[in-house]
Structures are given as C-alpha cells and as structure tokens.
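Example for tutorial group B:
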C-alpha cells in the first residue's frame, strides 16, 4: 500500500472510532468505540528547545524505528514542533515568512524543517507538525504550515498544544470549543482528507466536549509518581475523550525516579499503556531525555 493509502486507512479508522463511515460527511454521533484500534505510531517528540545540539534526520529516524520496533504493527513517527510560544503571546514559526502581515505570528530567518521532512518522506517516518499557538489565529497557523509543508508525504497532520492556546491571558491555555475543533479539523482535512488534527494537554476539560471527527488527543501529563499512576492518569484521559484515538508523551525528567528503574523504559511504558487502553494510537518519548535512552552514534 502506498503512503497515501496508508494515510487514508488511518483516517478511515479515526472516522470509524467516531461512529462514522469512511464516506460520511456529517457530524460525529459519539457512539462508543468498538475497542479495536488498528493503528499505532511510535517515536519521538522533537523541538528545537528540547535537545541540544539538535540531531540530524537520521537520528530521529533511528529513534522512531527503535520505538516502533517495540510494538507489533507500529509505524515510526513523531510529534514535530514547528511553532513555539513567545513571551509576548506570539507564535514563532521556524521557517521564513511567505510575505504579508500576520498578527501575533513571527517567522524564522531560515527553514528548519524542509531537510528533515525530505528525509522522512524517503524513509517512511510519519510526523504531525505541532504549533504552540498563543494569541495567534489557529486557522492562520494551519494554513501557513500546510501551504509550506503539505506536499510532504511524511506529514500526517497538524497538532495544537492547547497548553499554549491564548496562554498569555488564560492559565494553562484556553479550552477548545466544539465549534473551534470542527472548523480547524475541517480546515486540516481540506488540505488532505487523510490528515488528522491532534489536540494536546493533560486536562480533559481543555478539550472540545463532544466533537471528535478527524481528531487525535495526546496527553502529556508528568510528575505522576509511578508507572501505575501514569497508566491510571492516561486511562482517565482516554475515557474522557472516547471514542477518539489517543496518544501519550512520556519520559519527562520529573518521572525519572521511577522510569529510570525500568528494564526497558520506552517498551515497558508503552506495553503497559497498550494493555490498559485499547485506543492507544501514539507513543512518544520526549526530547528532553531522549538522548539518554537513544544515544546518538555521533
């Protein structure tokens, strides 16, 4: 199956989880998930501020393959951060401006993603392009990112870190409404119907209450005390956001006291989550400690 076919299969599964047929253009009816999740992407969270020096594409490919190799049927991939929150409430994108004026959006002088995405295209690594939106218009960020990178076969969709949505005025980010989720999901899927949109946070109440079409929800909770506590926390997230696929970021330094004692931290955590949460669709080790578990050959 070609890469577009794989992406369409993933989207079909997202729609099935939302109680829709693959050709249904209506609103989700929020039927219970059938508990049979068929797709899984395992790999990394990658940001320019999370690891220094920033590794080359081969490193990220090796990490994603090592992660995916721990779980039957998993594809290699990750969360690739292209926009970060600034102290003034703006979002800075790590590529040059296409021209024009964009409120609360700053741009980098050089493109920090193109070479990586080219490599991911050739080596079957799937990534969601994530932004920390701040006070910027999310729809504008989606357009800017997908107009620049939507031609890449490695792109699986867009991610919004809700912790940073209107974070200049709302503690821990402003909750996403059903109307916002619907508009943004439709915008993303307008670029490619196989794309998914993820929302990330640790509080379910920051997520849209009902809308689920084309969505994927990532929990990045930390400082949980034990593997059992992490599984319980992530299980609560999954239940609150049923029937959508769910993913998890882990490996934070705040949890090192317990994950550092595991024989195989990425594998042990991932297997525990899959055993407890049948809609697990993403397992991502964070860049803040990733080089300790996956040292570079350089």
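The residue assignment follows.
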């Amino acid at each position: 199956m070609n890469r577009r076919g794989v992406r369409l299969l993933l989207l079909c599964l997202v729609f099935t989880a939302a109680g829709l047929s693959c050709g249904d253009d209506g609103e989700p009816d929020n039927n219970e998930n059938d508990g049979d999740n068929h797709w899984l992407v395992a790999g990394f969270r990658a940001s320019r501020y999370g690891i220094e020096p920033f590794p080359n594409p081969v490193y990220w490919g090796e990490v994603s393959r090592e992660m995916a190799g721990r779980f039957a049927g998993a594809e290699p991939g990750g969360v690739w951060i292209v926009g970060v929150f600034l102290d003034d409430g703006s979002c800075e994108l790590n590529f040059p401006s296409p021209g024009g004026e964009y409120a609360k959006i700053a741009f980098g002088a050089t493109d920090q993603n193109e070479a990586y995405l080219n490599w991911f295209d050739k080596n079957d690594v799937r990534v969601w392009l994530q932004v920390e939106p701040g006070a910027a218009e999310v729809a504008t960020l989606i357009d800017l990112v997908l107009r620049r990178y939507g031609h890449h076969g490695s792109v699986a969709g867009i991610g919004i870190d809700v912790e940073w949505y209107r974070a200049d005025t709302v503690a821990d980010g402003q909750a996403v409404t059903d109307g916002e989720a619907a508009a943004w999901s439709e915008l993303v899927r307008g670029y490619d119907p196989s794309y998914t949109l993820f929302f990330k946070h640790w509080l379910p109440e920051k997520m849209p209450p009902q809308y689920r079409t084309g969505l994927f929800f990532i929990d990045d909770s930390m400082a949980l005390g034990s593997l059992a506590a992490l599984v319980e926390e992530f299980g609560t997230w999954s239940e609150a956001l049923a029937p959508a696929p769910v993913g998890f970021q882990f490996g934070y330094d705040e949890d090192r006291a317990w994950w550092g004692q595991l024989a195989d931290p990425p594998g042990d955590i991932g297997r525990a989550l899959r055993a407890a949460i049948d809609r697990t669709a993403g397992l991502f080790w964070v860049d803040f400690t990733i080089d300790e578990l996956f040292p570079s050959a350089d």
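The two ends are 34 Å apart (CA to CA). Compare this with the pattern of hydrophobic and polar residues in the output above.
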